[in-house]
């Protein structure tokens, strides 16, 4: 049952079975992004936010080594679009999102991939949220990804992504 | 630092107490704090050395890599002082400055010799460097995901410890069994000098989560001890392997994580077993300090390769040749840790 992308999709839940699969999923998502898009990644320590970001940036054509931006807060990369890989882990409040200059990336010429986005949730513009959770059972490698589109652009994006990922299910 | 390269004073205004309240370095608050402390620290450093400002011959300052706000405060203040005194201002790469901890006066410094293989390991960096000579550096490997210090901070969070995570884990681990839990060691491909600490961090998080899911509380001492054992083993093994293969006299560590007692012990033991010297500066010279910045600049000036009129570069690469005006010594530039001087 093909679904027209224009129909949009607000929520989607998926499970990946390995870090490689999480990276592949990210790569596909990255290939669908366009200038001005915001991805907000959440999930506990070790759930795979940077791993997913590595895939997303690969899908955007970034060839640099992509590492955790926790210490530097913002890593800038160039792919087919400029990419700002940001980490809110060390921010105390949403106010500081503005202070470190995140506001400059809204409606900007590139893509923003923000880890620990829940720490600045109140501040965020429209975005696609991806929450990563460990498997509550014994499968240490499995991750449960919950997508939530916040805004029309992201409902369209999420529908496109589901269509593209469907053959992999 | 005096004209013969001897250290006269080294003052550190620690921001750790402030950062603890926020669970990490908060950049804007950090740069505000920089602004508040830079002048008092400068005065303190002069008083400790028994010097007046007009006796200073040059100012050294970190131009990058780092947090742009903090770099700008240091650079601006240093430039102002250099301008007012009409003395040169020398820009220094923060990672290269960490290497110069090996040239600072301490009991171990006498034996240090180039070429050497050195590991700079901190919250933001895990770089294995072949240091052939002053100004001649080759990065052999670095992290593919998290820096070692970041893994310490995040494991500390999983264990509910405060910031900074490194010292907290070191303290806790002393009472634990490093062999209690067999966490993974990521050696990667056979010939790789790269590192990966994300898997280790995740393994610790998974272990703690599974224990708690089963209604048990993990023993934090054992988790801390086992985690830092896994971390230190990989760091020390790759450092010593590179040292042996490259035929240097010894290997060195510096950077904040080099203050970790288990890493220091592991590096000494493995270097000795491989017939290499182990250069492990005192902890206060491993963590961020002004003396190492002054020392790096002093050596660059002595060789005539000082980076004058530097500009702030948050992602300054290691080994970048100093920009243009090496001859012009009447320049103003940048600043980093308050109180840097050479």
What does it look like?
- The complex is a heterodimer of chains A (169) and B (342).
- The longest helix of chain A is centred in the last third of the chain and has 14 residues, at 152-165.
- The model of chain A has no long low-confidence stretch (mean pLDDT 92).
- With 169 residues, chain A is of the alpha/beta class.
- In chain A, α1 (19-31) crosses α2.
- Chain A contains 4 helices and 7 strands.
- Chain A has helices spanning 19-31, 49-59, 95-99, 152-165, and strands at 11-16, 38-42, 74-78, 82-87, 111-115, 127-134, 143-150.
- Chain A is globular and about 40 Å long.
- Chain B is of the alpha/beta class and 342 residues long.
- Chain B has 2 domains: 1-103 and 287-342, 2-Layer Sandwich (Nucleotidyltransferase, domain 5), CATH 3.30.420.40; 107-280, Nucleotidyltransferase, domain 5 (2-Layer Sandwich).
- Helix content of chain B is 43%, strand content 12%.
- Chain B has helices spanning 16-20, 27-49, 68-85, 94-99, 148-158, 165-173, 198-213, 220-246, 261-273, 283-286, 290-303; strands at residues 59-64, 89-93, 116-121, 126-133, 136-142, 250-254, 277-279, 307-308.
- In chain B, a hairpin with a 2-residue loop joins β4 and β5 (136-142).
- The longest helix of chain B is centred in the C-terminal third of the chain and has 27 residues, at 220-246.
- Residues 321-342 of chain B have low confidence and may be disordered.
- At the A-B interface, α2 of A face α2, α5 and α7 of B.
């Amino acid at each position: 049952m093909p679904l027209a992308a224009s129909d949009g999709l607000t929520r989607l839940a998926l499970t990946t079975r390995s870090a490689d699969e999480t990276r592949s999923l990210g790569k596909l998502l990255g290939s669908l992004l366009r200038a001005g898009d915001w991805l907000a990644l959440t999930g506990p320590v070790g759930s795979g936010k940077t791993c997913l970001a590595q895939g997303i940036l690969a899908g955007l054509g970034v060839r640099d080594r992509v590492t955790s931006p926790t210490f530097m807060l913002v890593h800038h990369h160039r792919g087919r679009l400029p990419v700002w890989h940001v980490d809110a882990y060390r921010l105390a409040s949403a106010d500081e999102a503005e202070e470190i200059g995140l506001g400059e990336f809204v409606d900007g010429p590139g893509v923003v991939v923000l880890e620990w986005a829940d720490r600045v949730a109140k501040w965020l513009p429209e975005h696609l949220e991806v929450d990563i959770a460990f498997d509550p059972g014994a499968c240490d490698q499995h991750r449960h990804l919950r997508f939530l589109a916040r805004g029309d652009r992201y409902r369209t994006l999420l529908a496109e992504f589901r269509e593209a990922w469907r053959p992999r299910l | 630092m005096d004209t013969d390269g001897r250290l006269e004073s080294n003052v550190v205004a620690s921001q750790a107490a402030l950062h603890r309240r926020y669970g990490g370095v908060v950049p804007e608050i950090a740069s505000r704090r920089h602004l508040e402390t830079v002048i008092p620290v400068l005065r303190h450093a002069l008083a400790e050395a028994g010097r007046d400002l007009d006796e200073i011959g040059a100012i050294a300052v970190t131009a990058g890599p780092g947090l742009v706000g903090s770099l700008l405060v240091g650079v601006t203040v240093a430039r102002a002082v250099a301008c007012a005194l009409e003395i040169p201002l020398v820009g220094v790469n923060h990672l290269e400055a960490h290497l110069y901890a090996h040239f600072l006066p301490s009991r171990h410094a006498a034996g240090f010799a180039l070429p050497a293989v050195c590991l700079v390991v901190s919250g933001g960096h895990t770089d294995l460097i072949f240091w052939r000579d002053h100004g001649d550096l080759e990065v052999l490997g670095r992290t593919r995901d998290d820096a070692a210090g970041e893994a310490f901070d995040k494991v500390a969070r999983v264990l509910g410890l405060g910031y900074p995570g490194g010292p907290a884990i070191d303290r806790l681990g002393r009472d634990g069994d490093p062999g209690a839990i067999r966490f993974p060691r990521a050696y990667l491909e056979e010939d790789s000098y790269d590192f990966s600490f994300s898997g280790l961090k995740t393994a610790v998080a998974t272990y703690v989560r599974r224990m708690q899911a089963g209604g048990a509380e993990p023993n934090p001492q054992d988790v801390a001890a086992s985690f830092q054992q896994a971390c230190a083993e990989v760091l020390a093994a790759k450092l010593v392997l590179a040292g042996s293969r490259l035929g240097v006299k010894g290997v060195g560590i510096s950077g904040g994580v080099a203050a970790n007692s288990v890493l220091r012990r592991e590096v000494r033991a493995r270097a000795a077993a491989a017939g290499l010297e182990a250069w492990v500066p005192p902890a206060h010279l491993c963590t961020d300090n002004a003396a190492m910045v002054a020392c790096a600049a002093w050596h660059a000036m002595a060789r005539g390769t000082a980076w004058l009129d530097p500009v702030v570069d948050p992602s300054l690469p290691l080994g970048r040749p100093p920009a243009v005006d090496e001859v012009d010594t009447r320049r103003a530039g940048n600043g980093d840790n308050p109180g840097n001087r050479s």
